[in-house]
Task: inverse folding
């Protein structure tokens, strides 16, 4: 697959509203304004609601009580105590099997969200939607894909907290308004969601989900801008925070990325000319689409029968792409922000071997995200890499635990030590990050119980000291072990013989001229877009099951920010 790397510094930074045609359209004498004709009044959605078009996406979810194991302890996995990317998006225009290609692309993006998936397609000016809870393979079947005809489609996978009403927040969302209907899939998090929602509700808007994405639909519906893509632009001008979104109308596919470019979004093209947008290039690879470039920060791309039109409509002084995409979230075979994720992680491991060497007999990884960094460490240190931990990929999030408790049950379900590799050895174990430290302590204990003579932990990221407000599920600062303890205190807590993190200065040195184009808020507490008021703890879903006013939802919010209790101030106090 041919790829072209675009560095962060190469992003256009003009604040003027300009339009650029990326691919030559067919010969046409129509003026610019007529390229986007008035949307005809058509049926809105295959499951249209009489009361509120946004309620089309709501499904009644009845709780079922399982009495079979009433005396058995239920263990809920903490998903390895890692930061969790909220979701992945895909959009396809101009392929007769658009929904099926979306389905395959979502498979490739499954690592970005495992608890819900959905696809919306358009056929004969009608939007068709299938959403569900679970993995992509669990949500979609041959019969369900047959209900998604058309050559335009968007898709979404998401992570969320567990909850009985989770289905209501599964995207893409579909809504109708006076000029037609629109579907949207969103990756990111709006830091001014609370104030926007309050303002909209004050003016009569009714919300049926707890997702910040619904705010975008309401803003589009009340906009008076024409043509349609200008409604999206007008809505996005009111948003603050992270958003990489794909929109679907009766005849257009629109992709937009926030002015700071927090979350990734790339564009590719199939051999038949179909245009593809996706969160990562790994989705393009699977459906044999060629990676062309990223969607630039602040850019709106409109795809219709006339071709692809690029509009740089929102000012953006400097990109602030999420550096954690290269540390943990993205797949190693992806190209993200113009850089190979594999090369980045391999380099992080090499840096650790140089900056924090230790006498050892074997290097192992905490699979899967620590593998490439461990390979880099082993290569630089001249020590063999071996699989000392085997990960089970067939474990769900909830398990039936025997009445006689098993220590470190959740970790043992997912990670199995290989005694033949560990016994009597001085072991370096490489992981991508430490969040609360609970899982790391269990892993160290597991390795020592399997005969490891020494366990030296190496972390391929700087210490995480602050929460992310831009689409990543991270705990509050008080729960982050690196915000409460020194490196030596953490080492003692997890029980390793030594501990070292990737030095921050070496990370930026590796990124070179692009270093200023990345966001390091989780490592520094310095936020490119300061959160306002109360901010959701997780990136995409507020409560997933709670109902009532926003004031009644306590568990989903971080402490109020601003002059009274700013994020940076809170970090300094607890450091």
Result:
């Amino acid at each position: 697959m041919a790829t072209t790397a675009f560095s962060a510094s190469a992003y256009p930074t003009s604040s003027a509203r300009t339009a650029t045609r990326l691919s030559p359209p067919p010969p046409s004498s129509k003026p610019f304004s007529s390229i986007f004709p008035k949307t005809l009044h058509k049926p809105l959605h295959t499951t249209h609601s009489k009361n509120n078009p946004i309620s089309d996406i709501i499904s009644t979810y009845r709780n079922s009580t399982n009495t079979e194991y009433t005396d058995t302890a239920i263990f809920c996995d903490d998903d390895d105590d890692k930061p969790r990317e909220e979701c992945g998006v895909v959009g396809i225009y101009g392929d007769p099997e658009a929904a099926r290609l979306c389905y395959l692309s979502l498979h490739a993006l499954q690592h970005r969200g495992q608890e819900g998936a959905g696809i919306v397609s358009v056929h004969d000016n009608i939007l068709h939607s299938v959403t569900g809870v679970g993995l992509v393979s669990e949500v979609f079947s041959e019969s369900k894909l047959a209900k998604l005809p058309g050559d335009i489609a968007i898709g979404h996978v998401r992570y969320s907290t567990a909850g009985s009403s989770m289905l209501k927040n599964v995207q893409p969302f579909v809504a109708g308004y006076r000029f037609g209907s629109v579907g949207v899939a969103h990756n990111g998090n709006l830091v001014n969601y609370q104030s926007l929602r309050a303002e909209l509700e004050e003016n009569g808007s009714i919300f049926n989900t707890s997702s910040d994405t619904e705010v975008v639909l309401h803003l589009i519906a009340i906009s008076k801008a024409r043509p349609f893509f200008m409604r999206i632009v007008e809505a996005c001008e009111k948003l603050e925070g992270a958003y990489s979104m794909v929109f679907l109308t009766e005849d257009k596919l629109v992709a937009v990325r926030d002015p700071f470019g927090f979350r990734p979004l790339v564009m590719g093209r199939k051999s038949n000319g179909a245009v593809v947008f996706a969160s990562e290039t790994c989705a393009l690879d699977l459906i044999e689409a060629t990676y062309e470039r990223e969607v630039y920060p602040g850019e709106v791309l409109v795809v219709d029968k006339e071709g692809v039109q690029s509009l740089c409509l929102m000012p953006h002084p400097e990109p602030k792409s999420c550096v954690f995409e290269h540390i943990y979230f993205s797949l190693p075979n992806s190209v993200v922000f113009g850089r190979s994720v594999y090369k980045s992680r391999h380099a992080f491991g090499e840096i650790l071997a140089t900056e924090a060497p230790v006498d050892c007999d074997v290097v192992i990884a905490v699979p899967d995200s620590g593998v490439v960094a461990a390979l880099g460490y082993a290569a630089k240190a001249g020590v063999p890499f071996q699989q000392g931990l085997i990960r089970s990929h067939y474990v769900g999030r909830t398990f039936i635990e025997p009445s006689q408790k098993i220590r470190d049950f959740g970790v043992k379900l997912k990670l199995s030590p290989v005694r033949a590799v560990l016994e009597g050895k001085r072991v370096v174990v490489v992981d991508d990050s430490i969040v609360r430290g609970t899982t790391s302590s269990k892993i160290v204990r597991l390795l020592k119980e399997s005969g490891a003579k020494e366990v030296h932990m190496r972390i391929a990221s700087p210490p995480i000291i602050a929460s992310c407000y831009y689409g990543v599920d991270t705990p509050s600062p008080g729960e982050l072990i690196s915000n409460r303890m020194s490196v030596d205190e953490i080492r003692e807590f997890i029980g390793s013989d030594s501990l070292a993190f990737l030095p921050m200065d070496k990370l930026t040195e590796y990124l070179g001229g692009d270093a200023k184009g990345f966001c390091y808020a989780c490592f520094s507490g310095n936020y490119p877009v300061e959160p306002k008021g109360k901010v959701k703890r997780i990136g995409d879903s507020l409560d997933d099951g709670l109902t009532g006013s926003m004031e009644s939802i306590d568990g989903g919010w971080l402490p109020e920010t601003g002059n009274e209790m700013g994020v940076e101030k809170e970090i300094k106090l607890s450091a």
